[in-house]
Amino acid sequence: MSVQTLLLDFSLEPARLGDENGQKTVFAQLETVLKDYIPNLILAAEINIEGGSLKLLTGKRGTSVSVRLFDRGLVTVNIEYYKEDHEEPIINFKSARVLENQLKKYITVIKSQAYAPVKRCLFGRYYPTSDERLLEYDIDDVLIDEQSPFQRVQIVHSKSLGNMLVLDDLQNISEADLIYTETLMQRGKESYEGKEIVILGGGDGALLYELLKEGPKFVWMLEIDEIVMNACNKHLKSICGDVLERRKGPNYEIIVEDCMLTVNKFIKDNKKVDYIFGDLTDIPISESACGELWEFMITILQAAFKILKPNGKFMTHGNGATCPESLELYEQELAKLKPAVRFTKSKAFVPSFFEDWVFYQITFKTADNGDA
Q1: What is the pLDDT of residue 107?
Q2: Sequential DSSP letters for 252-274
Q3: Selection from 306, 304, 305, 284 nearest residue 295 by Cα
Q4: Residue ranges in the chain modelled with pLDDT below 70
């Protein structure tokens, strides 16, 4: 069950909508055609507003239609109704396209656009890209929906992606996203055999699971959210195996607490490791490197390099390739680190993100790394 919202947009010669009479004429033409597609349609209200007018109509099964006429030559038609799963749609995308073509001819428009129905329901199907474009996913079930002390935790099922972890209404990882983990760890380019590794975050268990296949000496995974791990252990075993269930093995341990507590303990003990993975928050989308998320990310970076061996690496995910401004801000922060660091970048198309994602590999800028 869902509320179906269909949107149609039209551009006309501005002179035709330049005054009240012109808007009434165009609306009358629209109304005539709309009545052929939506049964029992009647005009419920007319409102004159700045820059144009708004007409509200109602029809069969509580359908509402709003027609907004802008004096600059734009017309928007929003059709909305409630639909049970077993019910036939009052108007679907195919018939909306036919309606669009009929209206286009009847009122003589410059250009027009009909959109597929937006399905607004009890569980979300829409998640944003990194640059805030809205994507519709083929989600047909919600397996878990819980609020942890830190975030909203959902596991949803997608017909094409399998089960997917969603945190605070942002897609994180799906069963189709091995490329994400392999690019983060630079599989085939880095050797983890016999190495000591720290994962900051990583609650879905995918990174730990894949790293353990590489024969590391020991991996510490520092994750704060028990609910995330329980959810992924139950519904994402194809990407995390049994590591979230066992929590501890001969060469790994999951420590459930704020990652900074363990990092600070390592600093105090002068413990150094070969690799650190930042698998926490993405680089924030903002105009400047300030605010709580940036402060958290910079604090993590500064602390992480205090427990990294001179020839060690800090590996992390960045953000979408369509967000160059935020990536540049992150690189500016890297340039401020002391001791100095250098970095390389990798990019991969992540199926559940529907976009290219950028990953960073950061090392000390020392003679040991080949710099003068």
Answers
A1: 85
A2: EEEEES-HHHHHHHHHHTT--EE
A3: 284
A4: 122-123, 367-372
Question: Residues 201, 223: contact at Cβ < 8 Å?
Answer: yes
3-state secondary structure of 151: coil
Token digits for 123? 């569980």
pLDDT at 122: 62
- The Cα angle at residue 330 between residues 367 and 313, in degrees rounded to 5: 35
Amino acid at 349: F
Q: Which residues pair with 196 in a beta bridge?
A: 218
Upstream peptide bond of 339 is cis (omega within 30 degrees of 0): yes
φ, ψ of residue 231 in degrees (nearest 5): -65, -45
Residue with structure tokens 């930042």?
Answer: 278
DSSP secondary structure of 55-117? EEEE-GGG-EEEEEEETTTEEEEEEEEEE-TTSPPSS-HHHHHHHHHHHHHHTT-SEEEE-PP
Distance CA 23, CA 17 (A): 5
Cite the active site residues. 279
Are 51 and 71 spatial neighbours (Cβ–Cβ below 8 Å)?
Answer: yes
- Using alpha carbons, select from 135, 179, 129, 170 the residue that is nearest to residue 321: 129
What is the token pair recorded at 121? 């329901």
Identity of the residue numbered 18: G
Q: How far apart are CA 97 and CA 104, in angstroms?
A: 10
Distinct helix (H) and strand (E) counts, the chain: 10, 21
Rounded CA-CA distance 291/116 in Å is 37
In this structure, the number of other CB atoms found within 10 A of the CB of residue 237 comes to 17
What tokens appear for 227 in the block?
Answer: 């609910």
Token pair 């035709």 is at which residue?
16
Who contacts 370 (Cβ-Cβ below 8 Å, separation ≥6)? none
What pLDDT, in 10s, does the model give residues 202-211?
Answer: 999 999 999 9
Q: Which residue has the tokens 């690496």?
A: 313
pLDDT tens by residue, 326-338: 999 999 999 999 9
